[in-house]
Specification:
This protein has 8 helices and no strands. The chain is mainly α and 162 residues long. Helix 2 runs antiparallel to helix 3.
């Protein structure tokens, strides 16, 4: 497995050097390396690769589902670093965009939406007294968001005080 990982990193470096940062193969390589690091739970290392991929997606495919998933993953990376404000700046818009495109998404993509909801709930709990309640108010009152919470089978309101 380690050999595959090193080959992926090398392939990414080669595409970046030969094709440049704005090439689709470089973008795909960034996403692949980010995902490898993600699976290994090396979120801080995955973040810059996801950011490079996101920049390419915003430029070339701003309404594609993978763009929103990537924003959500970066938000999670920031959540892991306890950078709550920065995490919220990515998680909230990613959720809103995924929700807006939910009808045309696949079942696997709906899992991405559910994970984003879980991460927003985690953000709420972990940010504690530092959080801005107004940022969460639209989510608490949104029936669609509440339905997703029910889909996740939360035993209670994830925003309730612990």
């Amino acid at each position: 497995m380690e050999k595959v990982v090193s080959v992926m990193f090398e392939a990414r470096d080669i595409t970046l050097f030969r094709l440049g940062p704005d090439d689709e193969l470089t973008a795909s390589a960034n996403q692949s390396v980010g995902l490898i690091l993600w699976v290994r739970r090396e979120y801080a290392k995955a973040e810059p690769y996801f950011r490079d991929y996101l920049a390419w997606m915003i430029k070339h495919h701003p309404e594609k589902w993978t763009r929103f998933v990537t924003e959500s993953r970066i938000g999670f990376c920031l959540l892991e670093k306890k950078r709550y404000d920065d995490a919220g700046q990515l998680l909230f818009p990613a959720y809103a965009a995924m929700k807006a495109h939910e009808e045309s998404s696949t079942p696997a993509a709906r899992d991405d939406l559910k994970r984003t909801v879980e991460w927003i709930a985690r953000l709420y709990h972990e940010s504690g007294p530092r959080r801005d309640e107004q940022k969460f108010a639209p989510f608490r009152s949104n029936p669609a968001f509440q339905a997703v919470l029910l889909d996740l089978a939360f035993p209670a309101d994830p925003f309730a005080k612990l």
